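Document type: protein sequence-to-structure record

Subject area: structural biology

Format: plain text, a pair of labelled lines:
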Amino acid sequence: MSASTDLVPQSGSQALQTTGQARADSKQFLTFRVGEEEYGMDILRVQEIRSYEAPTRVANAPQFIKGVTNLRGVIVPIVDLRMRLGQSAEYTSFTVTIVLNVCQRIVGIVVDSVSDVLELTAEQIKPRPEVAAALDARFITGLGKIGERMLILLDIDAMVASPDFGLID
């Protein structure tokens, strides 16, 4: 796997619509896996996807903050979302770091794997459930339904800005 993965294929039947071509009543989401669950986040927050490389550890940081990495001259904090959600963190060839541009800063989150980019219409997005979960309900914008697949749609801005996440003072 290369250090950076192109999100949009250049040709072929799998080519995705660019954001400018997306339907007015739809949004595009990057889908990824953490454990057995599949999540989605607004594609406009994603800067790039990189294969996982161990970051430089920061002393006294919470366990889920894996450290920092130098990304083309910018020091980027790396958070293992799996550990943040109370799951085990196994590093495989599918493990990736999604580099995000949120809350006016660059942050990397480690996930088990990235699936694809999906376009969801308003009809495919259902309201979030009001149940107890490992993830605070205020970070869930809704559930996306695509055939038999169910995506947990995240408000990644609210999650990163949360004091619980440990990145914003």
Observations:
- The CA atoms of residues 144 and 151 lie 5 Å apart.
